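Researcher: I'm preparing a figure for a lab meeting and need a structural model of a single chain. I don't have an experimental structure, so a prediction will have to do for now. The sequence is pasted below. Please return the structure as C-alpha cells so I can convert it later.
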Amino acid sequence: MPVFKLLVAAMAVVIWIYTGAVFLRDGLDFLTPFFHAILTVTWPGQFALDFLFYLLLSAIWVAWRHGFGGRGIALGALMLFGAVVFLPYLLIAALRSGGDPVVLLIGARRAARAR
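Model: Understood. Here is the structure written out cell by cell.
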C-alpha cells in the first residue's frame, strides 16, 4: 500500500501541474474540445469517449462507496472532473483506510459489516 499511495500522490502532483499549465495557456474551456473530439468520430474522439466512460465509472464507484447519500452523490459528481479530483480523493481514501485494501475499495462501513 505505501507504493500505491506514493504513486497516486506523484500522479496527483503531475496532473495538477499539467492542468495548471494548460489552464494558463488555454483557459477553463475544456468541455468544448472534449465533446468536439467525440463528435468527430476520430481516434482522439474515441479516446475522449473511452475516458468519459472511465469518469462515469469512477463517479458511480465513489457514490456507491458512500452509500449513494447526498455526500456520496456530490463526491461522485466531482469525479467527472477527472484525475485532478479523483487522485486526491483516492489518496485520502487510501490514507484513511489504514492500509486495508477492502476498506479502500468498499468503504469503512461496508467493510465493518462484512467482517
